[in-house]
């Protein structure tokens, strides 16, 4: 950080608006969009059990942090299963997932007129895809996006499938937007994201229902993956009436842990909690009694968690 009123001695690179100038592989934050696409395309049933045993593509094993033999769609996101989303992606043509990513705003400029904005890499028009590429793009490798693009994608989920242009100033009346995803399916995804938050605990906000997906991606330096990481937490709140989408990215965390669920989730909780309280958004945690996700009515206090790896 720096004081914009006193830039003496400040390196120019520190003044970049990293929300729009820096691109990263989004990692597991795109997994909800894979499940959404599979449901919209009808290649999976909502209650289907997916085989998530070990398998290889092009001689490379698809690895899970917490391997399980079988998982539901909810569990695939709750456990951040690379194998699960890979299985789903292989049921669809690559164009299906690329279309979803584009509809959510990936590879598209924000049109905010900000200097230095990058649009990321999607390669949506590719004609030939190896199976290993079809799999890895389902857990956020081989594509890049800015933090703001990821936030816009989650805002589309929080709008239950309606894509709206971004604006720095308040637009009144609000833009109607364009429906790009099924409302019913998107609401299902929001419900699963709430379960992810409840399991993770670190991203929860006292008194509010939130939905998140954490992610961890290895960094690329000089064209090769290195043992440095980017930790993400992306999500929306409050679940009963989503008002905010937020992405927290920690570049190359140094505190010993690097998983998004451990590193960026507590920061997400603090920032989202402040935004909700500062803008007097009504608490909705107890309102979960009347929803299908009844377990979400539990209020989780910050700091109440076990030491666990969450991708």
From TrEMBL:
<keyword id="KW-0717">Septation</keyword>
<keyword id="KW-0573">Peptidoglycan synthesis</keyword>
<keyword id="KW-0961">Cell wall biogenesis/degradation</keyword>
<keyword id="KW-0131">Cell cycle</keyword>
<protein>
    <submittedName>
        <fullName>Peptidoglycan synthetase FtsI</fullName>
    </submittedName>
</protein>
<keyword id="KW-1003">Cell membrane</keyword>
<dbReference type="InterPro" id="IPR050515">
    <property type="entry name" value="Beta-lactam/transpept"/>
</dbReference>
<dbReference type="GO" id="GO:0008658">
    <property type="term" value="F:penicillin binding"/>
</dbReference>
<keyword id="KW-0997">Cell inner membrane</keyword>
<keyword id="KW-1133">Transmembrane helix</keyword>
<dbReference type="GO" id="GO:0005886">
    <property type="term" value="C:plasma membrane"/>
</dbReference>
<dbReference type="InterPro" id="IPR012338">
    <property type="entry name" value="Beta-lactam/transpept-like"/>
</dbReference>
<feature type="domain" description="Penicillin-binding protein transpeptidase">
    <location>
        <begin position="1"/>
        <end position="272"/>
    </location>
</feature>
<dbReference type="GO" id="GO:0004180">
    <property type="term" value="F:carboxypeptidase activity"/>
</dbReference>
<dbReference type="GO" id="GO:0009252">
    <property type="term" value="P:peptidoglycan biosynthetic process"/>
</dbReference>
<dbReference type="GO" id="GO:0000917">
    <property type="term" value="P:division septum assembly"/>
</dbReference>
<dbReference type="GO" id="GO:0071555">
    <property type="term" value="P:cell wall organization"/>
</dbReference>
<keyword id="KW-0645">Protease</keyword>
<keyword id="KW-0812">Transmembrane</keyword>
<dbReference type="Pfam" id="PF00905">
    <property type="entry name" value="Transpeptidase"/>
</dbReference>
<keyword id="KW-0121">Carboxypeptidase</keyword>
<keyword id="KW-0472">Membrane</keyword>
<keyword id="KW-0378">Hydrolase</keyword>
<dbReference type="InterPro" id="IPR001460">
    <property type="entry name" value="PCN-bd_Tpept"/>
</dbReference>
<dbReference type="GO" id="GO:0006508">
    <property type="term" value="P:proteolysis"/>
</dbReference>
<dbReference type="GO" id="GO:0008360">
    <property type="term" value="P:regulation of cell shape"/>
</dbReference>
<keyword id="KW-0132">Cell division</keyword>
<keyword id="KW-0133">Cell shape</keyword>
């Amino acid at each position: 950080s720096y004081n914009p009123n006193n830039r003496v001695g400040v390196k120019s690179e520190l003044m970049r608006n990293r929300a729009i100038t820096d691109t990263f592989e989004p990692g597991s934050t795109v997994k909800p969009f894979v499940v959404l696409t599979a449901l919209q395309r009808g290649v999976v049933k909502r209650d289907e059990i997916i085989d998530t045993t070990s398998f290889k593509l092009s001689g490379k094993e698809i690895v899970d942090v917490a391997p399980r033999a079988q998982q539901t769609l909810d569990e695939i996101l709750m456990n951040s299963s690379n194998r699960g989303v890979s299985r789903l992606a292989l049921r669809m043509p690559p164009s299906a997932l690329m279309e979803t990513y584009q509809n959510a705003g990936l590879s598209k400029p924000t049109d905010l007129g900000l200097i230095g904005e990058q649009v990321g890499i999607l390669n949506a028009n590719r004609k030939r895809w190896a199976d290993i590429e079809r799999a890895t793009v389902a857990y956020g490798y081989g594509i890049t996006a800015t933090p703001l693009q990821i936030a816009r994608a989650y805002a589309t989920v929080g709008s239950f499938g309606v894509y709206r242009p971004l604006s720095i100033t308040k637009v009144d009346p609000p833009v109607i937007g364009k429906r790009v995803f099924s409302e019913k399916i998107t609401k299902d995804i929001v419900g699963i994201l709430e379960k992810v938050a409840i399991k993770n605990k670190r991203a929860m906000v006292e008194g509010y229902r939130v939905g998140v997906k954490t992610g961890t991606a290895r960094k690329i330096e000089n064209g090769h993956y290195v043992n440095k990481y980017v930790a993400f937490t992306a999500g929306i709140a409050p679940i009963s009436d989503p008002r905010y989408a937020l992405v927290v990215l920690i570049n190359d965390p140094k505190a010993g842990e690097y998983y998004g669920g451990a590193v960026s989730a507590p920061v997400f909780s603090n920032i989202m909690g402040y935004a909700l309280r500062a803008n007097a958004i009504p608490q909705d945690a107890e309102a979960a009694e009347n929803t299908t996700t009844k377990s979400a009515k539990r209020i989780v206090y910050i700091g109440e968690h076990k030491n666990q790896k969450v991708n």
